[in-house]
Amino acid sequence: MPYYICGNGACPTAGQAFSMTSAGQTYCPQCFTAGSLAAAPTPVVAPTSQTRTIATSNAMDAVGKDAAEVESLIAKWDLNTVSDNEAKKTKDYLYTLGAKSKRIDREGPVTNGNKVVTHGKFRLQFGTKTYAGVWIKVNEILDAAVIRRAFAESVVAGRYVEVYLG
Ligand SMILES: [Zn+2]
Q1: How far is the CA of 42 from the centre of ligand 1 (A)?
Q2: C-beta pairs of 28-33 under 8 Å, 24+ apart in sequence
């Protein structure tokens, strides 16, 4: 949809660009001034971190009474990016909570059909139980808060959750 600016100084749009809601309109949809519209550039929207549940991934254990501790462990996550080289390597105890068995591990890479590393795979475990996991798209600057949210979404969904720029 093309963007416009309204030329009426008293318009509630106050000089901000807006997109039209119907084709061929020549009046402002806010102040209804006829012939007041001037074309404006379409705003550039920066890509933002997105999450998506991977429905076909392994099922997680039910969190039950460990919910509060799992939340505390998730809160420790502060990384916003994963390189493809890092993603290839496993690393245990990236983050721990008290006892070392309560941890987030890097499990290794997710690869595509051409064996190209697409994601780093991370898993939140208490002992042998897996409560959450995320796939983080490699070589993208993401938002650590969105990755923490992805872990929390994984707990609820009982599946891995992907984090990527969309
Ligand atoms: Zn207007």
Answers
A1: 18
A2: 28/4, 30/6, 31/6, 33/6, 33/7, 33/8
Instruction: Give pLDDT, residue 42.
Output: 86
Q: Looking at the predicted structure, is the pLDDT value of residue 70 above 90?
A: yes
Whether the full predicted model's pTM is greater than 0.85, yes or no, is no
Ligand 1 centroid to Cα of residue 46, in Å, is 27
How does strand 129-137 pair with strand 161-165?
Answer: parallel
Separation of CA 27 and ligand 1 centre (Å):
8
- CB neighbourhood size of 50 (10 A): 15
Per-domain boundaries in the chain:
1-45, 49-165
Cα 5 to middle of ligand 1, angstroms: 8
- Express each pLDDT in 29-61 by its tens digit: 899 999 999 999 988 888 999 999 999 998 999
